[in-house]
Structures are given as structure tokens and as C-alpha cells.
Amino acid sequence: MHYSEDASTMKFLVAATCILDTLHVSFMCHMLYYYLITNYGVLMSLEYIVWSFPASVTANLLLILVVQLFFAHKIHYLCCRKVRWLVTAVILLFVLAHFETVTVVATSVDTNTSVLTQTWYYSVTPSAATVTVAEVLITVSLCTLLHVGGSHAAFPRTRRLVNTLIIYAANRCLLTLFVVIGELAANVDQQASWTMGLNFIIGKLYTNSLLASLNTREYLLSQESVGSTKDGGRQSHHDRMSDVYNTVQPC
Asked: Cα(68)–Cα(23) distance, rounded to whole angstroms?
């Protein structure tokens, strides 16, 4: 959807997310084409890693980083000033730990498949663990801040809107968390193909979580518009959402 009132940074964020997601799909398609079409039946080709595989890992990693930083920024905005940096710093610690872990692997990928299998096994476990902790921290922080701030809301329609935001935040985490745990379990069981397949899905889930959280604003604003009409208010969409953010801010 098009939101003319969005800042340029928000539009740039959406554009960057779409570009990274497109690049990730393109690299994966090139890798599959290389192994299944160009070198079909050539078993020796399976012993070497094509360049598009580490490129797809890098694009997927940047995509996850961008989305997690977006939600960390929202938490920083909603959090009380006294503990704002403390809460955000803990989340950023695990986000950057995940980024560093995968970056080391992506930049040191050997062209030999056997070496990659060993490297992938010992890197996915800490990577999946850090991204899982980061996801849990982001979700718990969002739900807690929205619940605490929404409990002080004076209007029932505002409390309903906050409850809807809490449900969206929890659902966003659960789906991603299930896939990350599945990837971790597959890696522990040394199922490399399943691990890579689930890793491919994670990037799409993060893209959808960001775009869905932005696109649902239209629905939430329409619900708020109905309540405002009943109350006789005539605020703009942007002003009403600003009031909601100010309401849920706990301090």
C-alpha cells in the first residue's frame, strides 16, 4: 500500500527490504539452475560451491538484520527513557551476534562441499540460538510495552487497538520462532538439506512480518476511524495513530 505520510526513511526501508528479498530469490534460482540444469547429471559439480550460495546467505542475513533493527527501533521509541537504552542494548547484542556469526561463515565459505557441510553444522547452531533469543526479546518487549501502555488508555477503542497490536506482535514471533527451532533441530540432526531449506524460508517470514506490520495500519486506522466517528472526532489518520503511540508510551 502507498502511505504518502510516511517518512523517506520508512520508504527507503521498504525498498531495501524488497530489493534484498528479490536478490535472495535470484541467487537461489541461479544456484538451483546451476546444479539442476547446467550441470544436470554431473556429479562432480556437487563437490563445489557456486558463488550464488554465499551471496544468497549474505542477502538473507542483511534482510533479517534490517527487519530486526526496525522492530528494535520501535521498542526504543515505546520504552521508558530510564531503561530505554538498557532494553535496546540487550536486543541489539543478540541481533549483532547473529549477524557476526553468519558473516564469518559467509565470508569464509570454501568451494569444497565437505568443508561447507562441517562449517554449516557448527555455525547454524549458535546462529539459530541467537536469532531465537533476539526474536523472543523483541516479542516480549513489544507485548509488554503495549500492554502496560494500553492499560492506561482512557478510551475502550484505544485499548482494543492496543490488544490487536499485541496479537499481531505475538503471531509474528510464533511463526518465525517455529521455523527457527525447526532449523535448529534439523541442524542438530545433521540434516543439511532441511537446514538450508528452512533457512531460505526464514528470510521470507521476516519480509512478510515487516510489510504486514506496515500494511495493517490501514485496517487499524479504519477501525480507529469508526470509533472516532462515533465519538464525533475528525482527526486525520496520521494524528489518530500518533495519539495511539503516545497513549501506549509507558513513561
From this structure: 19
Query: 133, 94 in Cβ contact below 8 A?
Result: yes
Residue range 159-217, pLDDT digits in tens:
777 777 778 778 777 888 888 888 888 877 777 778 778 888 888 999 988 888 888 77
Which tens digits make up the pLDDT trace of 173-189? 788 888 888 888 887 77
Length of the chain: 251
Alpha-carbon 145 to chain mean position: 19
User: Is the CA virtual torsion 157, 78, 221, 21 positive or negative?
Assistant: negative
N-to-C CA span, the chain: 32
Task: Enter the pTM of the model.
Answer: 0.79
Residue (of 144, 145, 130, 212) closest to 175 by Cα position? 212
221 in Cβ contact with 164 (< 8 Å) = no
CA distance 176 to 58: 19
